[in-house]
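Revision sheet: structure tokens.
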Amino acid sequence: MALKWIEGFEIHQGTGWLTDKYAEVSLSNVLFVTGRVQGFCIQNQGTTPCYLRTPNLGQHERWIVGMGIDPHNSPATLNLIEIRDVATGGVQLTLLMRSLNNSTYRLEVLRGSTVLSQSVALNYDTASHSTWPPIVDSFQHPYLQFQAVIDPIDGLFEVLLNGSQVLDDSGINTAALGNTNATGIGIGFCSGSLFVPFRIDDIYICDGGGSINNDYLDDCIVEGVLPTGNGEKQEWFGTNAGLPDSAHGALLDDPASGSNHDSDSTYISTLATDRTDLEVYANLSWITGNIKGIMVHTVARLEAPGSSDLELRSRSGDGVEALLEQHSVDAITYANKFRVVPNEPVGGLPWTVDGFNATQFGVRTPST
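Predicted:
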């Protein structure tokens, strides 16, 4: 599988949501404001560095990261993208933004403290925008893509802004840790002033494996949807909070705008194995073209200490169920369980809008 992570700040807003989702976060003076194309983005307006660091996404030498950025200013140096060894916390390669003055910056690729390459001066957007500007300038509001192969001898990197190459090199040492261990990505964003914002949006992360989504995905937008009603099966019990027991979709649609999920206020639960619960989700409303993949999230916990398996499942429009991922749940506190699904689970064809809209998603306790 090549597509490893999707983030659009649509269904996960608030520091609690993001803390559950990522392995490490630092979020200071952040707001969720109008997004780059639609929906929402995350904005920092302060001088304390912010970052999001993914959990372990598996060992891969090749990584590709894309994201929209709207920099009006930045600190003297800002680690935009780090290719990391999650287990040790070490950083193999960094794409850094260096502020040159109040109106210009440049991009640099670093192995440790060694600068491998640097761009020409690029322009900040010095105009005042309360939200993401509607017109994208090729340098001031770029869609940034960073590709690297981590290798002590035969590494490479490339940086694109709106599809145009601004940095590249190959046949070099890109491994600051002296090995090829690279299992996650760190993303940084921070303003260099209390008076101007720095925004990021529409993030994807790929590795170089598989036969699909193993190269640049180019400019992408992310849309998030929540459950709206009951699917084909409701075999778990609902804690109804004033709702009928059958209204499981309404129990699981914790609002994205909240600081986190509502914990035990509304949920579904079961003590039995081989129990499936499926929900209908809202239709996509602004994505119209090719869908590169989807990311399914569920937060789950145990009612008592122990361990149990949980399946993330789907049901296609023609009624065929499929296993997306089996997770171990081993804590009495909620944890985020996810699966990136690059193609329709039944048939393996690329996702279409109609195919996604017809698909139900849910959970199952597998038979022992």
